[in-house]
Amino acid sequence: MAERWQVTAQERTARVARRLMGRGAAGAEEVTGALVALHATDPATVFLSVDARLAKPERTFEAVEAALYGPDAGLVRMLAMRRTMFVVSRDSAPDVYAAAGRPIAVSERKKLLAFLAEGGGWDEKWLAAAEDAVSDTLTAKGELSGAQLSRLVPQLREQVVVARGKPYETTQNVASRIIRTMAAENRIERRRPAGTWTSSQFRWAPARPLEDRPADAARAAVVRAWLAAYGPGSEADLKWWTGWTLTAVRKALATVGAEEVRLAPGAGDATGYVLPGDAAATEAPAPEAALLPALDPAAMGWQDRDWFLPQEHRAALFDRTGNVGPTVWWGGEVIGGWGQRADGTVVWRQLTDRGAKAAAAVDDAAAGLTARLGGVRVTPRFRTPLERELGSA
Q1: 93-206 adopts what CATH topology?
Q2: What's the confidence (pLDDT) of residue 195?
């Protein structure tokens, strides 16, 4: 048996710099394809993840809005890996949905039926009628907000009793749960928000259909894309990123013919996997500075992050549930964090010293981002200690 290739931390950061960080993309679809999926729990993340990688970032907001909401929209939001909201390309959406979205949709429907039965005494027949009314209304009226839908569909104004008989008994509207489940099943989809690009108050419209894919083939396609962007990675990394069982991860790795590599001490300390033929050294590009938003895929791509983000900096850059805040990168490693003052100025703090050239490049990147934001202050949904501290300075 041939000896497995040993991957150093330097090799892994070179791959990150070349595959995930390089500024030069022509559009939002290209960025999304290179990163597989953009975290979209916080709508601003999508825009800022693209901004950090476009060749012409002064056109970020137009490019992302056109890709998401234009007549030929090439991106779509969906609930997928780890039951998290992502933006993916229309081309990859069938595989992402079959591999990760569809199982979540099944679970969401089961929970919704239990919620309605316990709190309101409604059954599957009642829910089907409500959902038909939502679909018919959107088809007839076009894009509508959740509030507009509720005014037009009486069933969405119903309320259920939660924790009946308990000291904390309360009532909840059914609208958000029904709409969420229909979106998870790709019956309706999110369109342009009612507010600004940072808003999460989306309008809704009938979803464009997705081609049906077998689950095993779809999982293999997702793993193939992940390895092309993030490889090498361990089984644990993939299990965490996808939210699948270890059995499903191993089956997908076998299907794509992934090659085993050794992750050297400091590079993950485990067996890793790359695509067939990808066990070769990467020429590191000239390092560039990048200010990436909270939940950017480059920081959330692996479960083990010690090889590009020192453990001693985790407390400053992550919240208590493992969500990463805004990060500052030099090449393929995290060297600090950033935030915004009340007036919108982007400021940063160095956590790892990479010299005067790196610091000057980050200063320039911060000034450029400040100018492009034009006074808009982006507050991450999951705030971290360093981001809060910089924001209050």
Answers
A1: Arc Repressor Mutant, subunit A (1.10.10)
A2: 84
